[in-house]
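Lab notebook, bench 4. We co-purified these components, and the gel suggests they stay together. Before we commit to crystallization screens, I want a quick structural picture of the whole thing.
Request: model the full complex, all chains together.
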Amino acid sequence: MRRASLPAVVVVLACVIVLAAGPLVLPPFYVRVGQLMLYSAGLALAWTILGGFAGYASFGHAAFIGVGAFAAGLVELQLSGLPPALQLAIGLVAGALACAVLSAAVAYPILRLRGTFFAIAMLGVSHVCAELNNNIDFFQGSLGLNFPPVAPVSVEPETFFYELYLAAGLVVLTIAWWIQRSRFGAGLLSIREDEDTARMLGVPTERYKRMAFVVSAVLTGLLGVIYAHSLGYITTDSVYRDDTNLDLIVYSMLGGMGTLFGPVVGAFVLVFVIQVVLARLLDFHLFATGLLLVIIVLAAPGGILGLVRDFWARRRRDAAMPAE
Amino acid sequence: MSASSILRVDRLSKSFRGLKAISDVSFAIDPGSITSIIGPNGAGKSTLFNLITGYLAPNSGEVHFSGRSITGLATNRIAGLGIARAFQIARPFRDLSVFENVRIGALFGKSGPRDVTATTARALELAGIAHLADRSAGALTVGQLRHLEVARAIATRADLLLADEPCAGLNPTETAAMIDVLRRIRASGVTVVLVEHDMPSVMEVSDRLLVLDAGSLIADGPPHDVASDAHVIAAYLGTPDSSASPSLSR
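Here is the predicted assembly.
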């Protein structure tokens, strides 16, 4: 739980420096792929605070992408005179607040459900939010919502949003890391393992679940706000997406459920495969994701990180054999 | 006596759909004692533990711990006051190591300042599983899991340990080891209440026996007095045959 923190920090920082330099050398297509990889990794990390750490796998986190994006867009409509950076900042605050309110409101009833029931109820939350957003004129979900251009004129928008996703992803990673190492994180872990026993040991399970839910929702909403700005124009369908709902689970399963870096690895691999390897077969996206999910569940329940761990464990065992 | 008792159960009753699981049960537990609650299957022993720890709310009656009422408090609040429970069927956090399991007990449990690492080490030592600290909990034997269950419970720094059949399914060697652990726990200042079926170990370790039958308390006293009580023998064997007595007191 607490091993190898210094080397991990060094590796992460090195990766961040390499990633930050990406737009300097990559062609525009790969910068856009990179954006999507970083955005997805950020979402996967935000998801895993609840789904991975506490074991409450949500199948409806697109609700928070959508609510965050539309809250920010509607507020920013009123701010047209202000400098773009300030508009973005206020939009982020608005998106975070809206997601905090929504998640706190649904947390109480919905976190009484466990396992599949919770997952499906979250799918319901996502669909209800999307329908309300689409059908209530005030939200402009079907009409669509414009976002102000927030990238400075001296920077390519692709590069700007790439770096913004990287910074946001780093913030989410740091928060998730801190949570994992904290007493709060240990409590979430015990909830995932056995909620009744956790309560018996004095873990305030209801409060911890709600906290994890709200943190996860707010971080997801923040990324949704950035995503909306990078698109420039959104409708209900562009943010409340069921393939996002599915992907967020797949990222963690592919990389390693419950781990910190598993969701990042899973998001990077899946986005790269879909966008680059299967680029010409884009219609097969959901098919490929579904197939991958089945293969992982059957062949590698620990995900990519689980395979790596098994590989090292086997090597260590093999190395120890002759000595015995 | 009742002023100094650590746990006081006052006219506690609980029914499930009209069936009385616990009916008008009262007793008080002295600090520093080991008390065993015995009784046939379905007598209400586990229900009693569930009521004390807040898993179930009683229909009537009160539970007092260290002089304050804990009736109706949430389970985690009761744990925060200093009551720990070891489950009958061990429920380890299987993906975690033994150390991490016990550490979660030390991180939470009774509120107040603590040294988590020292508390964890002490609990592992007391339960006799310090040598298994790095082992994955999923890889332990049934006997080792029982010790883990107890270690995690006392790592909460509880003043009262409720142990639900800690010796069930253990062989004689393992049972002797568990009894040793329970004695050490008592010696460290923790009051112990057991639910136990294994009569020889009950007779050996307990200061006092409470006997439940069909949800009612039918006997209360020192082990040897209770074991020869005609009501108790009748409850266990269904016939007031005094020849059963030696098998109860071995």
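Chain B has two domains: 7-82+159-248, 92-156. Worth comparing against the SEC data before the next meeting. Residues 172-187 of chain B form the longest helix (16 residues).
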